[in-house]
Amino acid sequence: MRLIIFTILLLFLSGCSSEPEIAPNENAVIYEPESVSEKPKDLISEADDTQTAPVAETVSFSWEKDSGSRIVDGSVPFIHKLSGGKSRLYYCKDNGILSAVSSDGLTFAKEQGIRISQGTGFESHVCDPTIVDLPGGKIRMYYKGADTMMGGPGNSIHKIYSAVSSDGLTFQKEGLRIDSETSGDSGWASVPDAITLSDGRVRLYYVTAGNMQHGIGSAISSDGLNFVKEPGIRVDNLVDPALIMIGDKYLLFAASIDERFARVPKGIYYLESSDGLNFGEPIAVFQTDNVYDPSVLKIDDSTIRVFYGKVMPPQLPAVESHTGKIIE
Fold it and tell me: Burial level of 213, CB count in 10 A (0-12/13-18/19+)?
């Protein structure tokens, strides 16, 4: 009996020596440490090998308006770099595509003749040229054909055609490249800009009205003739694409022309991409009314010139330009 009583006493004393459980107090206020944007370096554990992805640097420019106009009595430019430092400016006038040539990229002399003339049907009105170089010295022009120039999507049908040339002056039409009535663009595939990718494929960026969208879509081709529309939209709310590569980045220049859609004021902008499909936020080249259809000439590794259409009083079209230098 004494042994039993002694054992019970030992168990009671050992229970009293353990840490007591604290019942939660529902009215207690718990203070948590404020969050901080970064860990102090001296508090980062050596075992913490988490790395933050580097932030891609934005290509920044210092822009200056070039004095005067590049072309008067014509608009909707596309600039094509030639050998020997010259460049040829294709532009639209009287429902046809004309050209002018320059040795300095600022003063242009108009060339005789018509590069692409209007036809019938959906080529009753032709405009918006863009060019890619082909093997053997030939070039291919993509351009917009429309049944009427009056009104936007729903009132006019725009399609994309192509033509080929060995001298940049005389073109042979090749036919329809993107039929906007069957391509998912709701009858509106317009203002193309073409770029040859590193693997030889051609990507066409163009203004689309597909899926009730207002913006820039794209299509891809392995032979430059048969195009497949790429899913999604490249840029919404902006129009009139123009592409250029700066290093390994795609820079897409575009216009904000309609405040009903645009998230930014009217003007010319550029957006960056690492893959040519997903673009960042628009960065202004300049903001003003009545400008459209940019085209870009790479002068050297640090200088580009952006040509664009502008309506001059009293409602006369012209081609003007801004020159940008990369800010290191």
Answer: middle
Backbone angles phi, psi at 17, to 5 degrees: -85, -15
Q: What is the pLDDT of residues 244-278, one digit of tens each?
A: 999 999 999 999 998 777 789 999 999 999 999 99
Pairing of strands 291-300, 235-236: unpaired
Residue 4 lies in a domain: no
Q: Which two tokens stand for residue 59?
A: 């290509």
Here the CATH number for the domain that contains residue 109 is 2.120.10.10
Residue 19 lies in a domain: no
- Give the global pTM: 0.82
Rounded Cα gap, residues 70 and 222, in angstroms: 35
CB atoms within 10 A of CB 233: 18
Is residue 191 within 8 A of residue 241, CB to CB? The reply is yes
**DSSP-assigned letters across all residues of 6-17:** HHHHHHHHHHHH
Spatial CB neighbours of 261, under 8 Å, sequence gap ≥ 6: 214, 237
Does 18 fall in a domain?
Answer: no
Number of domains in the chain: 1
CA angle 212, 242, 73 (to 5 degrees): 100
Over residues 55-94, the pLDDT tens digits come to: 457 899 999 999 999 999 999 999 999 988 899 999 999 9
Query: Would 131 be classed as within a structural domain?
Result: yes
Per-residue pLDDT at 47 exceeds 60: no
Domain that holds residue 248: 61-326
Provide DSSP, 27-77.
TPPPPPPPP-SS--GGGS-TT----PPPPPPPP-EEEEEPSS-SEES-EEE
